[in-house]
């Protein structure tokens, strides 16, 4: 069975980024088991548009009624949601800054969590509507906060977002306190976790 991977990074630190190294390692591990896997790569650090009035208008207007301006405004969201829907496996690197995800990750979420596309709402509440059976790996890195602690809002947030749109098989790969003496052990544990995938 083929595996299409959506590989997303968000750190602007290039080759020095620990989260990028870890997401790349997950891709490598998955491809070693399924060599025919395909990958779509997105680096959010190069820029993600924020939701504005025109984008919101596009979200809440039937596609058949979209003007050319609205079509252009929602094009990035259309692509982002298509990539989510088409993926079998989602890998996203999320360095935690100031107790939360980077702004580019939040912008990506705002373009991805879209009524009628990735979730629905009726009298019974909300329901995630991305195709079932997807697996998400969320790589969370921190400088001083232990991953999984009360201060780690990034893991909780990403888990909530994926669950909301219907991705319920979620694995957090955490490497925390990287600027502190015990960070090396945390990073090794993350690589060991990846090796066991």
In words, what does this structure look like?
By secondary structure, the chain is an alpha/beta fold. The chain has one domain: Rossmann fold (3-Layer(aba) Sandwich). Strands 2-1-3-6-7 form a five-stranded parallel sheet, with helices on both faces. A two-stranded antiparallel sheet has the order 4-5. The model has no long low-confidence stretch (mean pLDDT 96).
Topology:
Layout: E1 4-9, H1 18-33, E2 38-43, H2 53-59, H3 68-86, E3 89-95, H4 103-112, E4 119-122, E5 125-128, E6 135-141, H5 153-165, E7 169-175, H6 183-195
Features:
five-stranded parallel beta sheet; alpha/beta; 7 strands; single chain; two-stranded antiparallel sheet; 197 residues; Rossmann fold
Contiguous uncertain segments of 5+ residues: none
- In the CATH hierarchy, what is the architecture at level 2? 3-Layer(aba) Sandwich
Percent range for helical residues?
A: 25-40%
User: In angstroms, what is the radius of gyration?
Assistant: 17 Å
Give the overall shape: globular
Number of strands: 7
The CATH C-level name is Alpha Beta
The structure class reads alpha/beta
Give the overall average pLDDT.
Answer: 96
The strand line-up of the biggest sheet is 2-1-3-6-7
For this structure, the CATH topology is Rossmann fold
Total count of domains: 1
Distance between the termini: 17 Å
Please state roughly what percent of the residues sit in beta strands, choosing from under 5%, 5-15%, 15-25%, 25-35%, 35-45% or over 45%: 15-25%
The number of helical elements comes to 6
Largest sheet: 5 strands, parallel
Order of H and E elements: EHEHHEHEEEHEH
Relevant CATH superfamily:
Flavodoxin domain
């Amino acid at each position: 069975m083929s595996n299409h991977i959506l590989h997303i990074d968000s750190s602007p630190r290039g080759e020095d980024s620990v989260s990028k190294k870890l997401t790349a390692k997950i891709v490598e591990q998955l491809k070693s088991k399924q060599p025919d896997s395909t990958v779509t790569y997105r680096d959010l650090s190069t820029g993600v548009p924020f939701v504005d009035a025109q984008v919101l208008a596009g979200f809440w207007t039937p596609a058949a009624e979209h003007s050319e301006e609205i079509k252009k405004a929602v094009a990035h969201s259309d692509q982002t949601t298509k990539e989510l829907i088409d993926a079998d496996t989602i890998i996203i690197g999320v360095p935690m800054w100031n107790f939360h995800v980077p702004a580019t990750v939040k912008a990506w979420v705002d373009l991805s969590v879209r009524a009628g596309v990735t979730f629905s709402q009726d009298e019974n509440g909300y329901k995630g509507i991305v195709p079932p059976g997807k697996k998400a790996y969320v790589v969370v890195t921190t400088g001083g906060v232990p991953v999984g602690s009360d201060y780690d809002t990034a893991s909780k947030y990403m888990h909530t977002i994926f669950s909301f749109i219907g991705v319920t098989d979620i694995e957090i790969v955490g490497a925390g306190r990287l600027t502190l003496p015990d960070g090396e052990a945390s990073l090794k544990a993350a690589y060991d976790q990846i090796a066991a995938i």
